[in-house]
Amino acid sequence: MKKQRNIFLVCIVIFVIAALIGYCTYTVIKKRNASGEKELIISFLDIGQGDATFITFPNGQQMLVDCAIDARILEALGRVMPFRDFSIDYLVVTHPDLDHYGGCVDVLKRFDVAQTLYNGYQKETIDYFDVFQQVIQEEGIYHEVSQEEVLEIASTSVRFLYPTHSVRKDPRIPGNSTDTGSNNTSVVMKLTYGDEDVLLTGDTEAPLEEYLVSTYDNDLDAEVLKVGHHGSGGSSSQEFLQKVSPEHAVISVGADNRYGHPSGRVLKRLQRLHASVWRTDQMGDIIAHITPSTVYVETREQK
């Protein structure tokens, strides 16, 4: 009899705990959706070492920024796109490093992409780049980002901060006499929805960060930062991070990668700024739900 009573008490305790968890979850969801406002949803996809960011605008239009290293991008898109959706409105390729553009040909073959935006940088020594270059110019509208410009999509401003010149003609950062590499030709974008900002930086490193700070200063401020170059030690300088002053810092990185990303120094800089750090290698897909006045971040770990 005593044993049955103990089992009964344990069941009651489990029930109470489950009810409390359910109530707290309901409260968070209710709070997040209390305004009933449409969301800008940005999914930083867990695709290993590389980058792929899928954006759903408040009116349902979609933008993919970078495509991972290979066809694994298709499985990742299947996690965030409706099953029978075979169209993407915008594809942005930040620069020609394989872990950013390697899966773009697969995307362009699988999906009807209305417009592709690229920085124009030519990587002539790699055969696969020639295939990529041919396909992106054949499918849909092709546009090279070569100046500061703005796309207005469903109450969201998509501002291209870099390149501010033709990197096809001259890959150097303005004011620099030396070529600092393809990472520093990355397309840099700032999305603004109401009072909330998201800064996407590709593989930006310290030399380009310095140019961005000198050019845009406090305009770099953003609630969400996609940390440059997977959190490498050559990116995310103290001055740049202070200008951005992110509340949330997302690092797209592969588990146990051979590059040692993210750098411990970068993590400490973000910690000093009291930014919440979200890593795809530890947390899976990282999804930011943004209204004109709030940012809510959730994670979806892959099974």
UniProtKB/TrEMBL annotation:
<keyword id="KW-0812">Transmembrane</keyword>
<dbReference type="InterPro" id="IPR001279">
    <property type="entry name" value="Metallo-B-lactamas"/>
</dbReference>
<feature type="domain" description="Metallo-beta-lactamase">
    <location>
        <begin position="49"/>
        <end position="255"/>
    </location>
</feature>
<dbReference type="InterPro" id="IPR035681">
    <property type="entry name" value="ComA-like_MBL"/>
</dbReference>
<dbReference type="InterPro" id="IPR052159">
    <property type="entry name" value="Competence_DNA_uptake"/>
</dbReference>
<dbReference type="Pfam" id="PF00753">
    <property type="entry name" value="Lactamase_B"/>
</dbReference>
<protein>
    <recommendedName>
        <fullName>Metallo-beta-lactamase domain-containing protein</fullName>
    </recommendedName>
</protein>
<feature type="transmembrane region" description="Helical">
    <location>
        <begin position="7"/>
        <end position="29"/>
    </location>
</feature>
<keyword id="KW-1133">Transmembrane helix</keyword>
<dbReference type="InterPro" id="IPR036866">
    <property type="entry name" value="RibonucZ/Hydroxyglut_hydro"/>
</dbReference>
<keyword id="KW-0472">Membrane</keyword>
